[in-house]
Amino acid sequence: MTILCGLALMPTADFLEAAYPLFESSQVDLLEWSFDTIWNGAELPDWATDLINFYASQDRLLGHGVFFSLLSGQAMAHEQWLSNLSKECGQYKYLHISEHYGFSQAGSFVDSTQLPVPCTASTVALGLARLQLVARAVPEVNFGLENLAFAFSAADALAQGPFLKKLLVMPGNFLVLDIHNLYCQSHNFKIDFEQLLLTYPLELVREIHLSGGSWSQYENLAIRRDTHDDQVPEELFQLLALTLKFCPHVESVILERLGGTINGGAAASNFRDDFSRLKAVVNSHDVPNNALNNALNYASNDQVKAAGPLRKMRGLEQDLKLALYQERLLDLLNSELSAKQIIDLLQDDSSLSIYREYIGTFEPRMVDVAKQLVKRWGKTAAQLES
Amino acid sequence: MKLPVSTQDKLRAALGLTLLCGMCMPIEEVQAKAKETGKANQSKESAKKSGSNQEVKPDGAKSETKPSKDPVADPEPSAKAPPSAKAPGSGKDPCPACGRG
Description:
- The complex is a heterodimer.
- By secondary structure, chain A is α/β, with parallel strands linked by helices.
- Chain A is built from 16 helices and twelve strands.
- In chain A, helix 1 packs across helix 9 (265-283) and helix 8 packs parallel to helix 9.
- By secondary structure, chain B is mainly α.
- Chain B is built from three helices and two strands, in the order H-E-E-H-H.
- The radius of gyration of chain B is 19 Å and the shape is elongated.
- Classes of the chains: A alpha/beta, B mainly alpha.
- Chains A and B meet through helix 1, helix 2 and helix 15 of A and helix 1 of B.
């Protein structure tokens, strides 16, 4: 089995300028497209539509959603998203579709950054119910989840892999492993990369993401951020080689770079160098023989199509206590309160007592990062209307 | 994965590039060169000098992948309007798809 290498499509001029030589020289095996970013009616440039059409026609198009918010406690726009997904998959043939672990919508926030969720019986049930809704909407399409870059604490980071393992249990489910996201957590919480890697269900990894990022400061601490706005750090190519050894069913490796950040010829050249390095690492990797026997992990959705499991999950598509916690969290992160004040307020809130232990692990520096993220990406319904 | 010629043409047009004698060149440069060559031809014709047509003519564009259109005189409309650097999914962000960490 050959591992294919591709690019995450950004419909921006800088991406086209940087990536054109790679497309022209037939180096891009796969294209990943965040299809739901244009469901608001935005128009794609012709060249981007042509690329999507072509890669879809060759069975080389991957879909990567960003607005589903799998683990929102409250039912937000999930039904509409699933309806759109069904239409999307009718229009284009995607090899598979993926989304993110975590939540980005709660209360008045129709979007923000992806934030983690405590792993409880209730949140696992919620995630499973939502994944079954996805399977019901697009029963022929394999659906995966990506690991997060962000965590509130080391304990939170170490819990995310096991949480994903509990969620990705249906045939057709898989893990998108973002190595830069792991790198962020490894650095920010001083956890050995391999130790962190091994907390994830690596047998379910079908796709790997690689990207660059940036550093931010909190007091005297450097915090690694998954901003996708710079070159891939040298160390990550070694970590990619290491990760491939542990993931026997990888089919694709995708380079991600945020549109609008490839400024100038040198940055464009670096972007192409990153892709060449990525390909070189993948090509030098020996695919283990057992990778051919992948039927157990990536099969049909026959079980999902059966009505039984769906009936069992009915009524679990919301978790109102979780919804309350998420609403309070986003509101506080969007306020001018300090990180320590936010943690105190959450811990003292009697309606959130079931999350007190989880909140007790929060590190102020990471709450400060979450504040920056929510202020940067958070959008309320009112803001969208104005 | 080899792109079809029509897709490659669209990418080039969006970048403001065109194919001239198999070489990928900026449309503006090609247009400027064509203009210069045209002027030179005109002046030489008016002077009625012999052996005046040794310059490279822009009809090297015959090897264009779209022979029905002259890319020098009439570039693809999309070449005149490069793709927007704005995000598809939001009014202010370059791309909401990733890198929100």
